[in-house]
UniProtKB/TrEMBL annotation:
This is LRRCT domain-containing protein. Gene3D superfamilies: Ribonuclease Inhibitor. It is a single-pass membrane protein; Single-pass type I membrane protein. Residues 191-244 form the LRRCT domain. It comes from Dissostichus mawsoni. Keywords: Cell membrane, Disulfide bond, Ion channel, Ion transport, Leucine-rich repeat, Membrane, Repeat, Signal, Transmembrane, Transmembrane helix, Transport. Residues 368-377 have a biased composition (Basic and acidic residues). PANTHER family: PTHR45773:SF10, SLIT AND NTRK-LIKE PROTEIN 4-RELATED. The chain crosses the membrane at residues 312-345. Residues 252-297, 355-377 are annotated as: Disordered. PROSITE patterns: LRR, PROKAR_LIPOPROTEIN. GO terms for biological process: axonogenesis; positive regulation of synapse assembly; potassium ion transmembrane transport.
């Protein structure tokens, strides 16, 4: 009997151990020192003074939000967010991040909101946002960005909200933003914008964004001096006409393109933000050619003809036609007035000629009346 009772106790003890073993991972499935909310599937690691990431492999399965704001994170490894495909929101704001490796968010295919507000980012790799095509909101405000490289936003075709406010942007390339077909809200304020030829094409893109119902905050010019403090959206497009002359003087159109000798145009992806020289990557020639990283040495960059300039030319033509018609009508009115005045002058002269004859007739009538009166008497 004792052996049977001891065996039952052993079985009961093993069962308890198995239950504890199953409950232990669930109880400890939250990376310290974070707080996990199982109802909202949220992991809050913000404001913990972290200088490195917590053990993210301990995140509860199916977590959707990871908050790492207000910490001391200065760098992240290339695989820091590996195997986190369930995350939909990532907040890295108010840290000291100054360089993010390419493909950092590659495994976060369901990410829809990414916040990098108030960090120390000065440059970004063009492949930084690779793999997050579902992203809808991106906050890059209050960093030290001086440019947005071509190709950085190519995969973000679902992006609807973008903030680049509070950086060091002087100008932007239109080609870098053309893939954002669903963008609705763009913040560009508090940047030292130089409203010159380098910003002309981007101005046309902003006008297109506003035309289709998007919103853009104030883009105030700092240079040149005569435009300082003005919103570039209110600057007439005719003020940028000199840019076309500069392109012609600098050979922007190219003799080959004018004569139609078949000189190939330069690829947009092969030009750096200044549009002058090809981008050189630290890869071999085959990979760069596959990505379109090099342009032919004899290529010619085709000159962009903005729609607003064509509209302005059309407006000038229509105004010229209207002015011509008005001038013709004025000439016709003047001719009519001259003819009328000459006819009236001729009529007045005829009246003056007839007045003496009318006077003689009156005198004869008076004599006849006097003779009649005398005869009656």
């Amino acid at each position: 009997m004792e052996t049977v009772g001891s065996r039952e106790e052993e079985r009961l003890f093993l069962c308890v151990l198995c239950m504890l073993a199953t409950l232990l991972p669930a109880a400890s499935s939250c990376p310290p020192p974070c707080l996990c909310d199982s109802d909202r599937l949220l992991v809050d690691c913000g404001g913990r003074g972290l200088s490195s990431l917590p053990p993210l492999h301990l995140l509860p399965p199916g977590s959707r939000s990871l908050l790492l704001a207000n910490n001391k994170l200065a760098s992240l490894g290339a695989s820091a967010f590996a195997n986190l495909s369930s995350l939909e929101e990532l907040d890295l704001s108010n840290n000291y991040l100054d360089n993010l490796p390419a493909g950092l968010f590659r495994d976060m295919s369901n990410l829809t909101r990414l916040t990098l507000h108030n960090n120390s980012l000065t440059v970004m790799d063009r492949d930084l946002f690779q793999g997050i095509g579902a992203l809808q909101s991106l906050d890059l405000s209050l960093n030290g960005l001086s440019s947005v490289p071509l190709g950085l936003l190519d995969e973000l075709q679902s992006l609807r909200w973008l903030s680049l406010a509070g950086n060091r942007l002087h100008g932007l390339e239109r080609a870098a933003f053309e893939p954002l077909a669903n963008l609705q809200h763009l913040e560009l304020g508090h940047n030292p914008w130089e409203c010159d030829c380098n910003l002309r094409d981007f101005k046309h893109w902003m006008e297109w964004l506003l035309y289709r119902g998007g919103k853009v905050d104030a883009v105030e010019c700092t240079l040149p001096k005569d435009l300082r403090g003005r919103d570039i959206r209110g600057v007439p497009v005719e003020m940028f006409n000199y840019c076309l002359q500069l392109e012609d003087e600098n050979g922007g159109g190219g003799e080959g393109s004018r004569s139609g000798q078949g000189v190939p145009p330069c690829s947009k992806n092969a030009l750096n933000p200044s549009g002058a020289t090809p981008i050189t990557d630290n890869t071999d020639d085959s990979s760069s050619n596959a990505r379109g990283g090099e342009a032919p040495s004899d290529c010619v960059r085709t000159r962009y003809r903005p729609v607003s300039v064509r509209r302005a030319i059309g407006t000038v033509v229509i105004a010229g036609v209207v002015c011509g018609i008005v001038c013709i009508m004025m000439v016709a009115a003047a001719a009519y007035g001259c003819i009328y005045a000459s006819l009236m002058a001729k009529y007045q002269r005829e009246l003056k000629k007839r007045q003496p004859l009318m006077g003689d007739g009156d005198g004869d009538g008076d004599d006849r009346e006097d003779k009649q009166i005398s005869s009656v008497a």
